[in-house]
From TrEMBL:
PANTHER family: AMMONIUM TRANSPORTER MEP2 (PTHR43029:SF10). It holds the Pfam family Ammonium_transp. It comes from Methanolobus profundi. This is Ammonium transporter. It is found in: Cell membrane; Membrane. It is a multi-pass membrane protein.
């Protein structure tokens, strides 16, 4: 199939949209930490993207999309982009590569939720390179590169397992290894700048259209469907989270935007397989589920306080299973449980569970090793003055 200039232009735009989501994550998280750690959170998002950009073009892409090795990892066919050129099937191979790069970049940025305000920058950078290589790349291969999950028939249109389960459960593992922030549960650590978080959430909602619609890899009807259901699910998640929190007090704007992100996460694996009415259910339930997960995390006193686990981990897990429930052959060629296909539901459950266990265990082990070798956490004094000053020598205050 020759190159299609329309499809190529569309995916270039979608790539740029997804890249914008990474600083969006930084702003989203930056508004939820204390003022002394705002620069740190935003910087880690940019650093994540920079690290992954180099890792991906050298080894990440080939480990994800190289020739299959035992259903687990890709071979070294494309090491340092060998053979990845400007021709391809519909779009240039090089464009597909960079579209996948921005997915990997935002995944590492999401994971920073688990270490807000207490990780050494040097340790994070080492962790980021290794984590992307041994966690993200195999999961991408499983789903999209010819690995066992894809061969089993698991559906993940735009990254429910690859991006969201991996980053969410990875953040949980990191938080458990590094421990709570000093004074957590004793002193107020509420969001310092909700306006910044709302701006970050707006960038995420906007960029997610490229995230999901672009995963069609063509400017066609499937891309349109993905865009429409993405917006619907986000809206449903925003409203149900807000309603659930309203019962307990005020309908906060932070709850509203968190619910929207939960809806976006949940529809990600399903966006190429379900219609608009299913998207309402998927997003609406995601808002309630992820809000409940947040409350559970608070009750347990766990300092994963930017809630990647509650929103991305649990939302991604629900989205993967929901794909097996609501998938429609009229949209993506495969029916789900509500149309009588029990097999697809079971496949989704196996895939989501495997991704969850792999991401959590590998992240926990990696974080533990790095902690033993070079230390994950800053000193008490550095944490007290804040990571903006102790790690970057900068401050948002005059």
């Amino acid at each position: 199939m020759p190159l299609d200039t329309g499809d190529t232009a569309f995916i270039i735009i979608c790539t740029a949209l997804v890249m914008l989501m990474t600083p969006g994550v930084g702003l989203f998280y930056g508004g939820m930490v204390r003022s002394k750690n705002v620069i740190s959170m935003i910087a880690m998002a940019f650093i994540s993207f920079a690290i992954v950009s180099i890792q991906w073009v050298t080894v990440g892409y080939t480990l994800s999309f190289g020739s299959d090795i035992s259903g687990f990892i890709g071979g070294l066919d494309y090491l340092c982009l060998t053979g990845v050129g400007l021709d391809g099937d519909g779009i240039p191979d090089m464009l597909f590569m960079v579209f996948q790069l921005v997915f990997a970049g935002i995944t590492l940025a999401i994971l920073t939720s688990g270490v807000a305000g207490r990780i050494k920058l040097s340790s994070f950078m080492v962790f980021g390179v290794i984590w992307t290589t041994i966690v993200y790349d195999p999961l991408a291969h499983w789903a999209w590169g010819g690995g066992w999950a894809g061969e089993l028939g698991a559906l993940d249109f735009a990254g429910g397992t690859v991006v969201h389960i991996s980053s969410g459960f990875g953040a949980l593992a990191l938080a458990l290894v590094i421990g709570n922030r000093s004074g957590f549960g004793k002193y107020s650590m509420e969001a310092e700048n909700i306006t910044m978080t709302l701006l970050g959430g707006a960038l995420l909602w906007f960029g997610w259209f490229g995230f999901n619609a672009g995963s069609a890899l063509a400017a066609d009807g499937l891309a349109v469907n993905a865009l429409v259901v993405t917006n619907i699910s986000a809206a449903a998640g925003a409203l149900t989270w807000m309603a659930a929190s309203w019962i307990k007090g005020k309908p906060s704007s932070l709850g509203l935007i968190s619910g929207a992100v939960a809806g976006l996460v949940a529809i990600t694996p399903a966006s190429g397989f379900v219609g608009p009415m299913s998207a309402i259910v998927i997003g609406g339930f995601a808002g309630i589920l992820c809000y409940s997960a947040l409350l559970f995390r608070v009750r347990k006193g766990l300092d994963e306080s930017l809630d990647a686990w509650a929103v991305h981990g649990m939302g991604g897990f629900w989205g993967a299973i929901a794909t097996g429930i609501f998938a429609s052959a009229a949209v993506g060629g495969v029916d789900g449980l509500i149309y009588g296909n029990t097999h697809q539901f079971l496949v989704q459950l196996i895939d989501a569970s495997a991704a969850m266990i792999y991401a959590f265990v590998m992240t926990y082990v990696l974080a533990t090793v790095i902690d033993k070798v070079m230390g994950l956490r800053v000193t008490d004094e550095e944490e007290y003055v804040g990571l903006d000053i102790s790690q970057h020598g900068e401050s948002t205050t005059a």
